[in-house]
């Protein structure tokens, strides 16, 4: 019997991780700890919200007293930490928020875990979910491995890099049972439509401009979110304390090629003439400090723990587009901001 606090479980990736653990491990108690920022949406977990092994707790990981009390009360055996400010563009306009949640929040959790586990780290686990963006940007052919030196450029990636360093410091200094994974760009259902893929799907569907930053030459390595959740499951259960794994899709796409592919998928699904949706592509001013290319070498994860992506990008993208076309209500609630009173209001006074 394990009790796991999963932070950020109402967000995009966190909701897939919570769902997977609640469904696959009925013996575990899963506590979803989330502040419900603009990115947190309990509608993402509607299908499992009444499961007997699931509980939601509204709270801010930056609030030290709250976190210490929660850990004292709940005595979790493990933490899977996904709560974060996650959007690069927002980090450019408000870096401090990223330092607070991503750095201070992470250190609060590490400290709370250390305080209750009191040096007995054998069967305990602190799993920190991070990004490949900590490694910086690549040339044309190289790839990020677990040995690549950190070289973050955006306030988002700098804050995530800092949090990774603190997690390693807690392993090196106190022996806390930490594990880190650094994953490439995710896509799939419940993705907040400020990020490229859901934003493009939504805008194409509505006949609105699809903004392409700069020349659209930047490359991202896309992974289906459910494959990421499965990788987290495998690493959580099998990795040695103190270890790090890269997770990626071996699936590099230039932004402009990806957007053109989405346009052609949506032309077919919406019964438009071929080339109709591509007319919405609009080149806009580039993002400041825009990293050119990310690509993950996930060989360590494959060789040591046997994980590989389960579906191709074409399959995953098709599923994703279908999900957004079918779940119009979710998308409308999110774009209107409605979801924040609708599903989350019952927790506003806690
Ligand atoms: P998201 O923005 O969709 O969700 C973040 C969640 O964290 C939200 O539910 C939000 O309410 C919660 N949260 C934010 N601040 C909080 C606070 N102070 N206290 C408690 N909860 C708070 O993010 P995501 O895309 O699901 O990313 C999840 C994690 O995975 C992040 O740590 C991110 O760095 C990492 N990651 C994301 C990607 C990606 O492609 N999205 C890739 C690799 C790694
Ligand atoms: P994003 O989804 O924000 O993820 P990240 O910045 O973490 O990689 O952006 C993915 C890529 O798409 C990135 O190179 C920036 C670019 N982009 C656009 O061209 N237009 C957009 O409207 C957005 C949101 C992103």
UniProtKB/TrEMBL annotation:
<feature type="domain" description="NAD(P)-binding">
    <location>
        <begin position="5"/>
        <end position="320"/>
    </location>
</feature>
<dbReference type="GO" id="GO:0008460">
    <property type="term" value="F:dTDP-glucose 4,6-dehydratase activity"/>
</dbReference>
<comment type="similarity">
    <text>Belongs to the NAD(P)-dependent epimerase/dehydratase family. dTDP-glucose dehydratase subfamily.</text>
</comment>
<dbReference type="InterPro" id="IPR005888">
    <property type="entry name" value="dTDP_Gluc_deHydtase"/>
</dbReference>
<dbReference type="Pfam" id="PF16363">
    <property type="entry name" value="GDP_Man_Dehyd"/>
</dbReference>
<keyword id="KW-0520">NAD</keyword>
<keyword id="KW-0456">Lyase</keyword>
<dbReference type="InterPro" id="IPR036291">
    <property type="entry name" value="NAD(P)-bd_dom_sf"/>
</dbReference>
<dbReference type="GO" id="GO:0009225">
    <property type="term" value="P:nucleotide-sugar metabolic process"/>
</dbReference>
<dbReference type="InterPro" id="IPR016040">
    <property type="entry name" value="NAD(P)-bd_dom"/>
</dbReference>
<protein>
    <recommendedName>
        <fullName>dTDP-glucose 4,6-dehydratase</fullName>
        <ecNumber>4.2.1.46</ecNumber>
    </recommendedName>
</protein>
């Amino acid at each position: 019997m394990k009790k796991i606090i999963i932070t950020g479980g109402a967000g995009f990736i966190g909701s897939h991780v919570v769902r997977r653990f609640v469904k696959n491990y009925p013996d575990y108690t899963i506590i979803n700890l989330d502040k419900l920022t603009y990115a947190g949406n309990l509608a993402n977990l509607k299908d499992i919200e009444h499961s007997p092994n699931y509980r939601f707790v509204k709270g801010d990981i930056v609030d030290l007293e709250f976190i210490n009390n929660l850990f004292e009360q709940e005595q979790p055996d493990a933490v899977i930490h996904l709560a974060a400010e996650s959007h690069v563009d927002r980090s450019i306009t408000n870096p401090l928020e990223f330092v607070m949640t991503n750095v201070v929040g992470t250190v609060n959790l590490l400290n709370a875990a250390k305080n209750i586990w009191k040096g007995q780290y054998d069967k305990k686990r602190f799993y920190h979910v991070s990004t490949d963006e900590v490694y910086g940007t690549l040339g044309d052919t190289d790839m990020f491995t677990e040995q690549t030196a950190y070289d973050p450029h955006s306030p988002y990636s700098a804050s995530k890099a800092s949090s990774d360093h603190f997690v390693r410091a807690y392993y090196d200094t106190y022996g806390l049972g930490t594990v880190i994974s650094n994953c490439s760009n995710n896509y799939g259902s419940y993705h907040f439509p400020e990020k490229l893929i859901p934003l493009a799907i939504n805008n194409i569907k509505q006949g609105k401009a699809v903004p392409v930053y700069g020349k659209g030459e930047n490359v991202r390595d896309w992974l289906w979110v459910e494959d990421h959740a499965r990788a987290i499951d495998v690493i959580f259960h099998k990795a040695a304390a103190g270890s790090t794994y890269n997770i990626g899709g071996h699936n590099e796409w230039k932004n402009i090629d990806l957007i053109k592919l989405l346009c052609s998928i949506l032309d077919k699904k919406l019964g438009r003439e071929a080339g109709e949706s591509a007319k919405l592509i609009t080149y806009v001013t580039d993002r400041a400090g825009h990293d050119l290319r990310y690509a993950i070498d996930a060989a360590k994860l494959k060789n040591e723990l046997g994980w590989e992506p389960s579906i191709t990008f074409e399959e995953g993208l098709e599923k994703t587009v279908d999900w957004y076309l079918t779940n119009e209500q979710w998308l409308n609630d999110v774009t209107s901001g409605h979801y924040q009173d609708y599903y989350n209001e019952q927790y506003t006074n806690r």
